[in-house]
Queue: 2 jobs
Job 1
Amino acid sequence: MIAVLFFGAFVAFLNNTLLNVALPVIMVEFQVNPAQVQWLTTGYMLVSGILIPASAFFIQRFTNRSLFLTAMTLFTIGTLTAALAPSFLILVAARMIQAAGSAMMMPLLMNIMLVAFPIEKRGTAMGYLGLVMITAPAIGPTLSGWIVEQYSWRVLFWMVLPFAVLVILVAFFKLRNIMDTRDVRLDILSLILSSFGFGGLLYGFSMAGDKGWMDPQVYLTIIVGAVSLTAFIRRQLSMPVPMLEFRIYKFPMFALSSAIAVVLAIAMFSGMLLTPIYVQNVRGISPFHSGLLMLPGAVIMGIMSPITGRLFDKYGPRLLAISGLLITTVTTFMLSRLELDSGYFYIMAVYTIRMFGMSMVNMPIMTNGLNQLPMQMNPHGTAMNNTLQQVSGAIGSAFLMTVMNKRAEAEAATLAEDAMKQAAGNMSPAEVAAMKAQVAQEALLHGVNFSYFVCAVIVVIALVLTFFVKRVVPPKEKKEAMKAAGGNPVKAGKPEHTPQPE
């Protein structure tokens, strides 16, 4: 049953990043501009941002079998529609249908893992889930780069379709219900406020890197998102049965794990954004080889995820997280010292080691935080974690892109002024053009390096927070420890509902 769920999730997550490399080809075929073609990724992200916060309601209200089959069916319908899309608008709609199915996968899987495995084995189980969650989106750009060079972009969807159909067929016969349902009601106003809140923030910050912060489309959507999100939180705190439970932040280890996960999401998304910019625009390396450079990091992160899960079960989260964040901090600083001629394999090695460091932090910290929540709050915990990762990734990427652009503009002005003084007007038009290209390249390098330096400072914040992490003791271990100490064991059922940190 777990294998079926994992394979379905792998197919859905792979499609998240599969289309990115194909966007230029799609622009030519449908004759759309960059702002329009961006809706293939922005629309996907917006639907995810709207549905993930609502996932806590769906997981409590419907059986895990019906939810998984519905999600995979929606994803499959979207995939088939995209493969046959005769127009760009239909292709955008198809991507949104895909997102409606894919958005439910991660919260649903995490909840099933929390129910299916005892607390002392959750680290290993969540580690295997991390393998799927990390590897699938990471291999997408490399795989799609090769396919787009050899075949039509439609092959990206035709390739996924038979696997999605196979998952539905196997799940129909093999998947069973292991999660309890509750007769909860969906608050429509909460859903509307959540959609405008998270959707507005995701859209606004995602578009900031391209359009700039002063564009009305950017700052107005951010303002609408912030106001709606504030109203949404206030409403949830006043409701006896909220759509998304914010009181889970009363649990200290969950709150701490959320803060660390937010910083880590910023670091991860920024690396996936800044590294291709440097490799392609500064070093002049092709998109396919740029994706290939990042592939070993994704593979290492995927391989390490189950291993770190086992280590978490044995040693707890603190040692793993401190070691991983030290590695991440050092390698991020190394990426802030890149040169115009930094070697391809050097960049690959540093990026891969950086991903290795991150693999030691993400799932152990997240699992430790979820372990402290009462069982009935798990859907809210997983929904909150997944929503925060999406929002913080978008905000962090937009912020670091702005930092990069501003620094590059300042450096370009300084470098151009120095170059013109040295030339003293004795340059031919060809030499002037070459000088401008050189200045732009050096300015962008300075921008990337400074942005990575800011990212390293942000990672240090997570490193400091990690020293306050405590392992949440499994209930059975806590009873045995109390008996060994001669104390009274905790009443049956008590730790199951409110496990406490040691």
Note: Residues 378-423 form the longest helix (46 residues).
Job 2
Amino acid sequence: MAASTTSTHAARGAWVRRFRPAPDAPHRLVCFPHGGGSASFFVPVARALAPGVDVLAIQYPGRQDRRHEPCIDSVHLLADALVEEVRGCFDRPVSLFGHSMGALVAYEVARRFEQRGQVPHQLFVSGQRAPSAVRDERVHLLDDDALIEDITRLSGTDSQVLADPEILRMALPSIRADYRAAETYRHVPGPPLSCPLTALTGDDDPGVTLDEARAWAEHSAGPFDLKVFPGGHFYLDAQQSAVLTALRARLR
């Protein structure tokens, strides 16, 4: 199991990627990847929204160019580290978007910023149950074959990665750490957010029912909206155009 307490050892700036820099954009969108994912997942979002939106994608330790750094297997520790990394972004309106595990990280980052008096323009949570909708899941404790089976079921990892034993061996530690982060996450009671919150989900997602997605409304006193798209856990691959349209509408 990867270590979970060495986030501050990363080089400054290692957390944030800008694939289409838009320094003069009136708005910023910070994107948080799913479990096992990386910042490059959001390249299409950066391409589509620039130059009107400055898109920042988060690179967690333990993958791609950060593969030699210890993984962080706690949503709360990830959020603690990320607040320090992106606090300088609030010189203009900032929205947060997270998919799957990334939705929990984005939510906890939003909570920490609101505690500092910095309210995000919008929080987008995708493919994830509300923090109050807890399931007892322990996939992170299973052996490698069972873990790969679950990844395949969700279709969340490139098939080329699953087919290449060497690449898969390199990726499994970060995937397992992310599964542990998501499955052991427990919501700490506190005041609801004040920012608008939009939940997005696929209508055939095995990990999120519509009621579990709708329960995100409990976590913000601001306006709430639920967007349901055709598809499973990674509905946003096939529904990219519709998802981007929804983002643009809220970011305006």
Note: The chain has a mean pLDDT of 87.
